[in-house]
Amino acid sequence: MLLSSQSERFILHFGEMGSRWGVNRTVGQIYALLFIAQHPLHADEIAETLKFSRSNVSMGLKELQSWRLVRQANRVGDRRDYYESLGDVWEIFRVLMEEKRRREIDPTLSLLRDMLLDAPKSEAEAHARQRMQAMLELIELSTDWFDEIQRLPPETLQSLMRLGARVQKVLDFAGKLRSPKPSGDPS
Hints:
13% of the residues are buried. The protein has a three-stranded antiparallel β-sheet with strand order 1-3-2. Helix 1 (5-20) packs across helix 2. The longest helix has 28 residues, at 123-150. The protein is built from eight helices and three strands, in the order H-H-E-H-H-E-E-H-H-H-H. The chain is mainly alpha-helical and 187 residues long.
């Protein structure tokens, strides 16, 4: 498969970003290739296109499958496995967020809940416990919010995201309506 210079730049960039997102460069590049490919690719095509060893491609595909970002496809009369990325960018975003939560957030929630079961034995422990409680509350609030957002259809979520700063203005206005003016306030 011959890549255009634009496709090459995209793939190289995803490789660089992969390390910032917790996967290695190879995995990032494999994902980028599958994302822009017009049809599912088999491992040998991926290895040849990206100039990677077949074993690196196999390990990368396993990693991407564990993240549920790549699925296996088959062709009639061909024993090779073909791979493709999820097609819808909103589905990719949703799956990525679910996996990040499962791998990073859920274990942190479990640890915090466990640690907060024990009563503090000193002032320092009480302070640490108070900080951990605040962190737990923030993470629970954000995960509850994410659960609600995740139930929205992509079109609604997209509209909500486009609202951007306008949401803050509505919330500020609603807050002013709820807050009575202090007595003696001329405004």
